[in-house]
Amino acid sequence: MIATESLGKRYPKVTALDRLSVDITPGVTGLVGANGAGKSTLIKILLGLSPATEGRARVLGLDVATEGAVIRERVGYMPEHDCLPPDVSATEFVVHMARMSGLPPAAARERTADTLRHVGLYEERYRPMGGYSTGMKQRVKLAQALVHDPRLVLLDEPTNGLDPVGRDEMLALIRRVHTDFGISVLVTSHLLGELERTCDHVVVIDGGRLLRSSATSDFTQATGSLAVEVTDTDAHPDGTAALGAALTAAGLAVRAAGGLESGAGYAGAGGGHVLLVDVAGDETYDVVRDAVAGLGLGLVRMEQRRHRIAEVFQPAAGTDFDDANRGSAQKRGTTHAA
Ligand SMILES: Nc1ncnc2c1ncn2[C@@H]1O[C@H](COP(=O)(O)OP(=O)(O)OP(=O)(O)O)[C@@H](O)[C@H]1O
């Protein structure tokens, strides 16, 4: 879908992309990096909107340096910033974008209605967009990227400005763009955690350089730990502590899960009361089961723990990206491991 070779972009005072070589295959790919890592710069080069200062890139087999116009016909683009005219309705705007992409009037209207329905805009689509919420505006931006039925869409920070529920809805929508229509997606984000749930593949960049490009499953391989969550009872008001003591007495290595454990990767987990138990062998499962039963606790879950991207990424990236990422996340009022 996308291949770059030693791609570079230098501005007078900053190197936005530094010899970036990466291959992106069909599916949903996340491009993650802190603010200023070079994500938007890469997207603009891939669309042929901004020339690279060195190296080469191809999108759908087309050279970005010479075939930008053809690329823009076949690729949808959702820009990062608010760019919607306030006095125009979503329908008028998306029909206009469809016409700009070369669709005849009737097909443009039909595709617009279908696409706006798909992104979840109904009656509101006839109202001026100036009165829309951020979530609705992001949906219109997504719709205009999809309306001409591209093979690939480039989505620049589509979850920006959304609350957690809005973010989850947008991520589910992005996933469906691929599963329902077979359109490949390159989606950028400065939040590692949200890409973990949405993308087949993740590309991490920092300071314009490639840090890692891997299948999401490689980032989130199973670890040698078991996450165990239990209920409290009258006899054991702190069931987790009682189980921890019992397992330690049985010779297992046990520790309390850190903050990440109660995050989105363990959705629905009971407030972070999770024990991590080192798996010594199959018998570890029996020891945990017997200890829980012996104490009369309810077993909420017992599952092989998987790495979260944020954890794997830290040692690979050193502290630079992480600090920058955390700083930018704070700046935006969001959390690092969202
Ligand atoms: N037109 C420009 N002139 C000079 N410097 C620029 C220009 N556009 C981007 N840069 C710089 O290039 C670097 C990469 O910017 P870019 O917008 O690609 O980052 P990003 O990863 O998309 O971050 P963000 O999410 O904040 O947009 C930054 O240091 C930025 O200040």
TrEMBL record:
Family of the protein in this entry: Belongs to the ABC transporter superfamily.
InterPro entries: AAA+_ATPase, ABC_transporter-like_ATP-bd, P-loop_NTPase
Keywords, ordered alphabetically: ATP-binding, Nucleotide-binding, Transport
Gene3D superfamilies reported in the protein's UniProt record: P-loop containing nucleotide triphosphate hydrolases
GO molecular function, one term: ATP binding
Protein name (database record): ABC transporter ATP-binding protein
Domain ABC transporter residue range list: 2-232
SMART domains named in the record: AAA (SM00382)
A Pfam family this chain is assigned to: ABC_tran
